[in-house]
Amino acid sequence: MRVVTNRVDLTQAQVWAIAHLVDGRISQNDSVLESHSHDESAFPPVLPSAVVSPNSTAEVSSVLSYCNAEGIPVVAFGAGTSLEGHVVPSRGGISLDLTSMNRILEIRPDDLLVRVETGVARKALNEKLSSYGLFFSVDPGADATLGGMAATGAAGTTTVRYGSMRENVMAMTAVLADGTVIRTGRETRKQSAGFDLTRLLVGSEGTLAVITELTLRLFGIPEKMAAAVVCFPDLARGVAAATAIVRSGVAIARCEFLDKKCITNLNKLEGLSLAEAPTLLFEFHGSPQSVKEDANTVQEIVADFDGTDFEWTAEEGQRRKLWQARHNAHYAALAMHPGKKGVSTDWAVPLSRLADAVGAAERVLSAHSYPYSFLGHVADGNFHAQIINDPSKPNELNEIREITHSITSEIIAMGGTCTGEHGIGGGKMESLVEEAGRESVEVMRAIKRALDPNYILNPDKIFTEKI
Ligand SMILES: Cc1cc2nc3c(=O)[nH]c(=O)nc-3n(C[C@H](O)[C@H](O)[C@H](O)COP(=O)(O)OP(=O)(O)OC[C@H]3O[C@@H](n4cnc5c(N)ncnc54)[C@H](O)[C@@H]3O)c2cc1C
Questions:
Q1: Distance, CA 154 to ligand 1 centroid (Å)?
Q2: I want to staple 82 with a disulfide (CB 3.0 to 4.6 A). Which of 39, 129, 130, 456 is the partner?
Q3: CATH placement of domain 224-331
Q4: Ligand 1 centroid from CA 148, angstroms
């Protein structure tokens, strides 16, 4: 556990007052506090003083109003799968667990939209939608909550075709730090009325408001889906092939890169028998005819980059197994190093710089002794390195942070970003300044000051200095 100096611990009177607001759903049980002290990153945990579980917008409003008046920090908590220390309650206070708000409020097939409470998990939503022939497309792999996904501006394997949370959140209900309830956006495909508060709150990482309801855009389940796998002699040719495919205009639904180490890990953990080489995984969506044509075009393009063993399948069980394995790549790497933690980086560059960016990351990481592997949503120019460290040696985490920061600086200099989808959290504050510039960060800080003047919402995230 990390020791914090400006920590807020609730008094007994404050615990009782909050309990009264949420019908007793407040806990100070050790294991509940522990499970809300960290996310899936290697960031050292910090215990909240209490975990509060509201089950309506009205309850969130009264808890925030009380905490604002009392100066109690509040960190919204979804599934806790974020990767930059986002949910670590750095100053104690309360962790506001939104998973009890898990009702699907309205499905409107004719409008291709759904209205959900913030704690609905992605997989549960898609299970429900499948009986309507619909799906919600954003797929970060982890079974995150929709609120957490909106708050981090999540993306994933299908973003190349269907967009990220930024494109797929149409409207929301959110509660400001002082308890004021606002509604943003409309249930329309287009809107041009005033400032776009929906997109301001998407990606705000719980620092500006707590989201309680979301209206999300849906798609029809495609008539046919097929997956394909192809190997490359080296990383550079795999990445170059992905770039060429995107440029060709083929309507790929997914295009993921995994390096040799990821494939070796997955073969061991998932019982697969993939050729152990840099690999691209694809998915095609459409009519049976269009899927076949797209797969043929991709096969022709990858041959130009010495892609071999092109294999494709429209068999549903195999297709699901392949993508489930891809989603488990993070855990497969950890399983290969028992007792260790993983730092998952997240860079994105313009497509033309993708091969240079992956090459730069490889050059820097290979000069150190930490085990690492690469994977990514390469069709979006977005890739990750997973770097293994020993949590019992805090200096390792610090050194890895320095190493990754140096790569990030190179990537920013290439016109890229320090994060394509994971967000800033507590880990990339310096990189945000480097990327956006002090003036832009000052504008962000002014917005924070206007909406959360007492600085209670997820403090010490996104910005370095105290306001
Ligand atoms: C194996 C693995 C793979 C991953 N792959 C991807 C990927 O491909 N793409 C991607 O984008 N991410 C990925 N992630 C990261 C993570 O899944 C996403 O960031 C996800 O959106 C977090 O959702 P959550 O419900 O777990 O949120 P949490 O981790 O609980 O919270 C994340 C942030 O959102 C805030 N928050 C949560 N709920 C609310 C709310 N209702 N209102 C306001 N703020 C809120 C929190 O305070 C915190 O700052 C991956 C993670 C893992 C472990």
A1: 7
A2: 39
A3: 3.30.70.3450
A4: 5
